[in-house]
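anyone seen this seq b4? input:
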Amino acid sequence: MVAGQDVSSAQAEQEEGEKSPLPQIGFYHLTRTSVQEALPQLLDRTLASGERAVISCASDEEMKNLDRTLWESRHYFWLPHGAEGNSDEESHAVRQPIWLSVRTEAPANGARFLFRLNGAPTAPLAGFVRIFDLFNGQDEQSVAEARKRWKEFRQAGYSLAYWKQEAKGWRQAG
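predicted toks r here
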């Protein structure tokens, strides 16, 4: 699924009388760390705000690596989560505050925050209130694809924010 399909499906849902507003989409331009290094702090803030998250990974390999990274995180906080592909975890998906997935269906845990990694396909955007689109700023193809998604979402009327990674934290730009 490409970003244009996400945009059109969300527009169709809005036209059918869906009353929820379009989600806010934040683009996170990673310039000094990897997704695995940047994501834990964003997830910690998500949980602290009382929200749940689904993380849309581009591949099974990316999902497995991220699962391992979150369990082995050296941060001062613990990030409880589950991942598809593990039958024990899938049977309790609804109880997981963070859910890792490569599927494009609605999140099993009722998350309202979506973390889209490296342009991964996603479920229809209706039902989410915030979308975090994290992309590798060191890879020209990832940057070009993020620009394309930005243009498509802007044309569709979404509220967009651009965050660039700095030496310490993030700076909103653009």
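The chain has five helices and eight strands. The helical segments are 3-15, 35-48, 60-71, 87-90, 140-155. kinda curious what u guys think
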